[in-house]
Amino acid sequence: MALRELTHFIGGKNTPSTSGRFGDVFDPNTGDVQARVPLADDAEVEAAVADSVQAQREWAAWNPQRRARVLQKFLQLIDDEKEDLARLLSSEHGKTVPDALGDIQRGVEVVEFACGIPHLLKGEYTTGAGAGIDVYSMRQPLGVVVGITPFNFPAMIPLWKAAPAIACGNAFILKPSERDPSVPLRLAELFLEAGLPPGVFNVVNGDKQAVDALLNHPQVEAVGFVGSTPIAQYIYSTATANGKRAQCFGGAKNHAIIMPDADLDQVADALVGAGYGSAGERCMAISVAVPVGKETGDALIEKLKDRIGKLTVGTSDNSAADFGPLVSSDAVGRVNDYIQIGIDDGAELVVDGRGFALEGHEAGFFTGPTLLDNVPTTSRAYLEEIFGPVLTVVRADNYEDALRLPTEHEYGNGVAIFTRDGDTARDFTARVNTGMVGVNVPIPVPIAYHTFGGWKRSMFGDLNQHGPDSVRFYTKTKTVTQRWPSGIKDNEGHFVIPTMK
Ligand code: NAD
């Protein structure tokens, strides 16, 4: 059977590639190549940007309410199709179908937020700032903006970027991950069907070459990126050196602090879901558990061991599976390497997920859940992001030692504390040096109308994703000082800077 050959999506059409370069899209359940994704060259990027520039002029002239109606229609279409989309997503990513539905839903919620754009774009107004003088500000779109997105949320993150960007009147070019590009392409088709003018949402598939062409293109005004930290830093520095606005979200090492007063059954349930769900391929996965005190730690390990023993690893379309395969064979290799590094550095291997094979799917990219106890904080297994189903336990003697760990870690995406004590929780939320904090909530991903963003090396830039920050990121403020005086023609010139008296 011939391989499915994917395209770009430019000017409202599936556009076959002319670069002659392709990447493989795998089915992680079987290890087979299931499609070929084009890797754009500079000329294809140029064509996409030129198309977006044209489309944006008309789109920006639509009033915000009319733009919001397109988003509303899109919500209807995606709702009708979400089951099929989830299966498609799951077949390229490897996450289970229910988890893929969550991926879509979290994206949809930002589209819902962006439907409020008429309200969100209202500027500030001061009447009578001086005699006969009014001052007002308006938020205008930037022009053509780009989103470069990771493999692990192929619906959610493109929607987090696209919905506010287009609602604000920009044209949006998506450069999705080359590992699971089919859902992003389908999103572009659905936007068109919802009434979005051709060219307002273009998709350019590709790798570093396409990204670099976008970063260097003078008509790209802003770049939103999500992915690993080294690439986030590269994109941020290149985009900003080229005078573009940029917000680049990177990797993570999310800690969960478990105080001795916490309900350990609840904690163990939460950690198993947050550590192993989606095979740990979430930027908000909990990868470090920090029980406070020996008793807490020993009891927690027993409860985790028990629950891990009951987990089901299966194909992504198996409704009984707790998690599916990793995205690639490289990812399996990387996870195995980190487990070995942890062991070599002195960690205790409590549950070993390496070598797991699913019967009938031996070539799939599977690995089982792993639990490492007493991981030294000097080990790369603690310091670096593993991005797989590995929960590491670092023991702390007391609250202050526990607080120090996420506070001093180079990543600062998410963190959680489990306690029954409000005073401890308040102290923790105030002092921890991390962008998103959960109190008895293991994956504290803020809802759509708040903002999402980590600190330290989890984020380069200032404004967060979605919520009010996204409107600030995708618009520029123009401030008008106006005066309609009577008899201005009779006034003499003023040579001193005007001030409000
Ligand atoms: P990645 O950095 O490999 O790729 C992300 C994007 O960058 C892709 O579109 C890819 O094509 C492009 N890219 C890759 N190498 C490039 C290069 N050398 N030059 C230019 N572009 C390049 O990340 P990934 O493996 O797809 O995603 C997983 C990572 O994303 C993890 O580190 C995870 O923590 C992070 N992530 C962060 C957040 C967040 O909000 N902070 C959310 C999701 C994922």
From TrEMBL:
Protein origin, superkingdom: Bacteria
Domain Aldehyde dehydrogenase residues, every copy: 21-480
MF annotations from Gene Ontology: methylmalonate-semialdehyde dehydrogenase (acylating, NAD) activity
Positions of transmembrane segments: none
Pfam families tied to this protein: Aldedh
Keywords: NAD, Oxidoreductase
Enzyme Commission number(s) from the entry: 1.2.1.27
Gene Ontology biological process terms, A to Z: L-valine catabolic process; thymine catabolic process
InterPro entries found in the cross-reference section: Ald_DH/histidinol_DH, Ald_DH_C, Ald_DH_CS_CYS, Ald_DH_N, Aldehyde_DH_dom, MeMal-semiAld_DH
SUPFAM superfamilies, sorted: ALDH-like
Primary enzyme class: oxidoreductase
Stated name of the protein: methylmalonate-semialdehyde dehydrogenase (CoA acylating)
Natural source organism: Hoyosella altamirensis
